[in-house]
Write a structure and sequence with these properties.
This protein has a single domain (14-251), classed as Aldolase class I (TIM Barrel). It has seven helices and nine strands, in the order βββαβαβαβαβαβαβα. Strand 4 (76-80), helix 2 (88-102) and strand 5 form a beta-alpha-beta unit. Strands 3-1-2-4-5-6-7-8-9 form a nine-stranded mixed sheet. By secondary structure, the chain is of the alpha/beta class. It binds iron/sulfur cluster. Iron/sulfur cluster binds next to loops.
Length: 255
């Protein structure tokens, strides 16, 4: 699979889209909020626990994608991937098309979240200005591909989006070296993200419940054990500073 590290070339009024669908946001500040998810193609990483088919995209005109979004009631739009920040100019243009199409119905104006692994540089410009929430989830150690991660890029992205960002750390509590890496990184990241917007989420490397869309009871039990262990660990390591939450969409078999 190709590895991308920088924003990609314009596509002439099209987005590379894997899927657009309505569901409930399962993570972070907007957990539980009905949301439209627009998943773009391509990613700069190849994580071990990846649960998305980001290499199966089709090209769709901005107006067609906007029409699908507007055809649903949810007013929270999540741009996810793959890695959506590979498509910053295109997504900026798409959001202009969406906002213009929404003008006749102000109730349709969307709050926009971008979900990113944080390892692609974010550029100043219309896209940066239009996004309401930047949700970064750096992929650490056994979960991610650290050889592609430049932590100074993640820090610069956090600095650029200060006041409009959140951090999600997905961790297996049974992998102490990953826990150490995250806490070491957070010593630098903490100045850009208030504690209330830092979330820890369990990852279960043994049963791989995270890649199942319809986990069985055994998987869920195992996941909840990891949640309990991670909650204790984070409380001890951080002196009760951070929240530890499950990924709701995984537990509830939401898409
Ligand atoms: S960054 Fe996300 S989409 Fe990309 S490979 Fe990793 S888990 Fe999958």
């Amino acid at each position: 699979m190709p590895t991308y590290t920088q924003p990609l070339k314009p596509l002439g009024g099209h987005l590379k889209i894997v899927e657009i669908f309505e569901t409930v946001q399962g993570e972070g500040k907007y957990a539980g909020v009905p949301s439209m998810f627009l998943r773009t193609g391509a990613c700069n990483l190849e994580c071990a626990g990846c649960d998305t088919k980001w290499d199966r995209w089709s090209e769709m005109p901005y107006a067609e994608a906007a029409a699908i979004v507007l055809d649903h009631k949810s007013s929270h739009l999540v741009l996810t991937g793959g890695e959506p920040t590979l498509w910053q100019p295109q997504l900026g243009e798409f959001l202009e098309v969406l906002d213009t199409a929404s003008e006749s119905q102000p109730a349709n104006f969307h709050t926009v979240t971008v979900e990113s692994n944080g390892a692609v540089p974010i550029r100043a410009g219309a896209f940066l200005n239009r996004v309401d929430l930047w949700s970064f989830s750096p992929k650490v150690g056994t979960l991610g591909r650290e050889e592609y991660f430049h932590w100074e890029v993640v820090l610069e992205n956090l600095r650029l989006t200060e006041g409009q960002n959140q951090l999600k750390y997905v961790l297996d509590p049974n992998v102490p070296e990953d826990v150490d890496r995250v806490f070491k990184f957070h010593e630098q990241a903490q100045i850009f993200v208030p504690d209330e917007f830092v979330y820890f989420q369990p990852y279960d490397t043994e049963t791989l419940v995270n890649i199942l869309h319809a986990p069985g009871l055994d998987d869920i039990t195992s996941y909840l054990r990891r949640l309990t262990a991670l909650t204790k660990l984070v409380a001890e390591r951080s002196e009760q500073r951070f929240r530890v939450l499950p990924q709701l969409h995984k537990l509830l078999s939401y898409r």
